[in-house]
Structures are given as structure tokens and as C-alpha cells.
Design brief:
binds adenosine-5'-diphosphate; Beta-Lactamase; elongated; five-stranded antiparallel β-sheet; about 25% strand; 3 domains; five-stranded mixed β-sheet; binds magnesium ion
């Protein structure tokens, strides 16, 4: 490329401030990107010292000079930090300073490339903030569920069991004519205890740590699928068990995916496949139901919380989550969580 064309390119680049400094740090060239990002025209800025772009605290700390010294020592310096526009507002900049030497090794000046990263930084921080919030939320939810499970277990179930025992004593004292009534009461108490146990079992992923994820999922399916009118298949292709934290996350996502199959799919079979992929755990929950039907809400962009929660849980754990139609009909929720977040 002829030099003039190259020069045109540099001068015309909008997204990067590209300019040069003399060996003392005075500005000797300017491009349109620099004007756009920093707000100075070429006429205003030529000859000025590049420290005008630095906030007062950086100037007081001698940062501009230090950066030039590092660039000379190492040939190049990269920095991210606040810089000033002409109007005094700050932007988050990515800065690369390159020391330019001639053939005799004499310092001729510096090339400086600056990018405005304000938007990117804002987006990253918003994302981080959201992640933090969701992590707290998920943790709080798990804690609360566990607490409720213990309360139900230690309190409600124990009381009901005590009621059952008193009924037995009562049955022995009452005459034969009251036996059917007592039996009915006794049945009612047993049913209540069973229901409460089921509630505890759903609230607190049962012994994932002791029995492993696959058995916990299989036990849940054996209980829930018939109640949902679903046949179920579990394919265990795991080469190794995920760690306990990851297992709980997988279990929760699986629960929500299964609830969706029950609520929306009108399927006859649900299949859960677990495999070890890429040093992580890949899980697929597939159904043979109606497939992805765009509801009015979905079309209107109104997000449903189930989908968001599943995705957030997976992403918070450092993994990914997708929901898609299956080629043969029905849908498939697939997600992957790394072994170490
Ligand atoms: N297995 C599925 N089969 C068909 N449609 C589904 C399935 N899972 C989810 N959907 C669709 O996606 C929508 C969003 O799901 P979700 O975010 O869990 O919210 P909700 O279950 O409260 O409706 C559902 O309303 C439904 O239209
Ligand atoms: Mg749902």
C-alpha cells in the first residue's frame, strides 16, 4: 500500500484515536477518531503535551511521564483507565503507547492508540452486577428451601407422627364400633405425613451429596413423571460425578425443565441424558411434545421467569443453557456446567 493511502486510513479511522507524540510527549499528529473521542480539533491540540488527557490525580502522581518511560523501557505500554475529554467529562480508555526508534536506536517519539471503552465497561459492570444479584438470589433461595424443609421435617412431620401415635392409643381404648372412624383418621394422618415427606423431598435435593446426582434425578423422575402422566428415560453417560454445588444447580435446572414439560409440552415421554463433556457436565432434557409454540407473551418479548432462571443458574455457574425445538418434534433443554466454575 502506498504510504499516502496508509496515511488516509489512519487519518480516517473513527473508532480509534491514533496520534503521535514527540520524544517529550507533545502531540505532533491527530486523526478524526482522536477528535471524535477526545473532542479537540487538530488545530487546538497540536503542540500540546499529552498529559492534558489525564485526570488531575494521575498528573499529580506523575502517571503520564511514567507511561512514556515504561514505553521506552519495554517498547510498548498498555493501560486502561479514566481519561478526560476536552469538555472535562471522563471516559474509560484503553491506551497503547508504542515507542518509535529510528535505525540508530534513537527515540523519535511515540505512537498512541486510544479506544473509548466506556460503553463496554458499563455493559460489563451491569452484567457483573446482575450475575452477583442472581447468585445471591439463587443462594438465598436454596437456603430458604433448606430451612423450610427442616422446619417441615422437624416440626410438622413430627407432630403428625405424634398425632398418629395418639390415635393408636385411642383406638385401643375405644370400642369396636369406633374402629372405622379411627381408621379413617389414621389414613388421613398417614396421607398427610406422606405429602409432607414429598414436600421435603422436593424442597431439599435428597442426598445428592451421598447418593449422587443421577440417583437423585432418577428418584425424582420415578416420583414426579407418573404424576405428570409421563414415561421417562434416564441415560447416564457420566464419566464422573459433578461436585456437590454443581450437582444442586443441575438438579434445580432439571426440575424447572421437567415442570415445563409437564405444563407446556403435552408430551408422552421425557428423556434425561447426562454426559461428561469438555471437563464438565452436559444435560439434556428432551420431550416428544408439541414443540416450541410461540405464545403471545413470548412473541411480545415478555420473558417468563422459568427460562430466565434456568439460564441464569447455568451462566452463574460458568456454563451455558439453550432451549430449542427437536428435529423430530418436541423440545430439548440442553445445558452444560463446568466441573470447576
Ligand atoms: N417443554 C416445552 N414444550 C413446549 N413449550 C415450552 C416448553 N418449555 C417451555 N415452553 C414455552 O416457553 C414458555 C416459557 O417458559 P417459562 O419461562 O418456564 O415460563 P412459564 O413456565 O411460567 O410459562 C412457556 O410458557 C411455553 O410457552
Ligand atoms: Mg416454567
Amino acid at each position: 500500500m502506498p504510504e499516502s493511502a496508509f496515511q488516509l486510513l489512519v487519518e480516517g479511522v473513527l473508532d480509534y484515536a491514533i496520534f503521535m507524540l514527540d520524544p517529550d510527549g507533545h502531540i505532533v499528529s491527530w486523526n478524526i477518531g482522536a477528535e471524535r473521542i477526545k473532542g479537540y480539533t487538530e488545530a487546538e491540540v497540536l503542540g500540546r503535551h499529552f498529559s492534558v488527557f489525564y485526570p488531575p490525580e494521575d498528573i499529580a502522581a506523575g502517571k503520564p511521564e511514567r507511561e512514556l518511560e515504561s514505553a521506552v523501557a519495554d517498547g510498548r505500554l498498555e493501560d486502561e483507565g479514566w481519561r478526560l475529554r476536552k469538555d472535562g467529562t471522563r471516559f474509560w480508555a484503553n491506551v497503547v503507547i508504542t515507542a518509535l526508534f529510528d535505525g540508530d536506536g534513537r527515540l523519535r517519539g511515540f505512537g498512541k492508540v486510544t479506544r473509548d471503552m466506556t460503553e463496554r465497561r458499563r455493559a460489563e459492570q451491569a452484567l457483573l452486577e446482575r450475575r452477583r444479584l442472581v447468585t445471591h438470589l439463587v443462594e438465598a433461595q436454596e437456603l430458604e428451601r433448606r430451612r423450610i424443609a427442616w422446619d417441615v421435617h422437624d416440626d410438622s412431620i413430627q407432630s403428625m407422627v405424634a398425632v398418629g401415635m395418639r390415635l393408636q392409643l385411642l383406638a385401643d381404648r375405644l370400642g369396636e364400633e369406633h374402629a372405622p372412624t379411627v381408621r379413617r383418621l389414621d389414613d388421613a394422618v398417614r396421607t398427610a405425613v406422606d405429602r409432607l415427606r414429598l414436600l421435603v423431598f422436593r424442597l431439599r435435593p435428597p442426598e445428592i451429596a451421598d447418593r449422587g446426582l443421577v440417583r437423585a434425578i432418577t428418584a425424582y423422575l420415578a416420583d414426579a413423571a407418573p404424576a405428570f402422566g409421563l414415561d421417562h428415560v434416564v441415560r447416564d453417560e457420566l464419566e464422573r460425578e459433578p461436585p456437590a454445588d454443581t450437582a444442586v444447580t443441575i438438579y434445580r435446572i432439571f426440575q424447572e425443565a421437567l415442570a415445563n414439560v409437564h405444563k407446556h409440552a403435552r408430551a408422552s415421554t421425557v428423556e434425561v441424558r447426562l454426559s461428561t463433556v469438555d471437563r464438565g457436565t452436559l444435560v439434556e432434557v428432551s420431550d416428544d411434545g408439541v414443540g416450541v409454540v410461540m405464545s403471545a407473551d413470548l412473541q411480545a418479548g415478555l420473558e417468563h421467569f422459568g427460562m430466565i432462571e434456568m439460564r441464569e443458574r447455568a451462566e452463574t455457574a460458568g456454563g451455558w443453557w439453550t432451549f430449542a425445538a427437536r428435529p423430530g418434534g418436541g423440545t430439548s433443554v440442553r445445558f452444560w456446567l463446568p466441573t470447576t466454575p
